[in-house]
């Protein structure tokens, strides 16, 4: 085993499935996640992050990107951690990614704020950019590691569109035919 291997599949998945068979009450707790999650508190905004929260106004996810080496800088920073350049600016991204990890919150610590699924979404453009966001429009039991997702925004005010993610079809990919010279 090397240090670069991915962690195993969600460790609770199997146990959860067994419990759901044993306990119908628990099974009932594994509901469809709502298309529009409950109203979370507004995020705190700063000069650096204001563009990020407003980006969903036109349905496009944006993050800071370095003009010199293309590195995506998230959390927002005035400097590129890749090359040290100060030429960083908000840039449009595809909004596509995969679920790197996730958790389902069922305990209602604040009235109205559960259930929800919080995921760490690895963005298509850069493997080390992972955005913490809620998953919507999916049954909690159907969420899997590496599931393709696409960004969706929830408008919370005239300045804040919170990025969430929904399941997305796998992008069509062009594959080369197998080398048949030796067949
Ligand atoms: Zn750079």
Descriptive labels:
183 residues, mainly beta, five-stranded antiparallel β-sheet, three-stranded antiparallel β-sheet, 3 helices, disordered N terminus, binds zinc ion
- Catalogue the unreliable spans: 1-16
- Count helical runs: 3
From the spread of the alpha carbons, the general shape counts as globular
Number of strands: 8
Q: Bound small molecules, which ones?
A: zinc ion
Largest sheet entry: 5 strands, antiparallel
Going across the major beta sheet, what is the strand order?
6-5-4-7-8
SSE-based structural type: mainly beta
In terms of quaternary structure, what is this? single chain
Structure description:
By secondary structure, this protein is mainly beta. It has one domain. A 5-stranded antiparallel beta sheet has the order 6-5-4-7-8, with no helix packed on it. A 3-stranded antiparallel beta sheet has the order 2-1-3, with no helix packed on it. The chain starts with 12 loop residues before the first helix and ends in a 16-residue tail after the last strand. The N terminus is likely disordered. The site of zinc ion has 8 residues, from loops.
Fold topology:
Elements lengths: L12 H10 L1 H5 L21 H5 L7 E5 L5 E2 L14 E5 L3 E10 L10 E8 L6 E6 L12 E8 L5 E7 L16
Antiparallel strand pairs: 1-2, 1-3, 4-5, 4-7, 5-6, 7-8
Bound molecules: zinc ion.
Give me a quick take on this structure.
The chain contains 3 helices and 8 strands; from the N terminus they run H-H-H-E-E-E-E-E-E-E-E. The protein is mainly beta. The radius of gyration is 19 Å and the shape is globular.
């Amino acid at each position: 085993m090397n240090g670069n291997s991915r962690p195993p599949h969600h460790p609770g998945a199997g146990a959860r499935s067994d419990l759901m068979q044993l306990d119908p009450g628990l099974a009932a707790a594994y509901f469809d996640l709502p298309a529009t999650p409950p109203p979370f508190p507004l995020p705190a905004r700063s000069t650096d992050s204001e563009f990020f929260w407003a980006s969903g106004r036109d349905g496009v996810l944006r993050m800071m990107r370095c003009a010199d080496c293309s590195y995506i800088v998230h959390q927002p920073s005035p400097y590129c951690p890749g090359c040290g350049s100060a030429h960083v600016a908000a840039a449009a991204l595809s909004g596509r990614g995969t679920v790197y990890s996730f958790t389902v919150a069922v305990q209602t610590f604040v009235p109205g704020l559960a259930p929800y699924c919080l995921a760490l979404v690895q963005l298509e453009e850069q493997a080390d950019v992972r955005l913490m966001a809620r998953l919507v429009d999916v049954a909690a039991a159907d969420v899997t590691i590496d599931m393709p997702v696409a960004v969706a925004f929830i408008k919370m005010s005239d300045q804040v569109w919170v990025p969430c993610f929904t399941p997305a079809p796998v992008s069509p990919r062009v594959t080369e035919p197998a080398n048949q010279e030796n067949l």
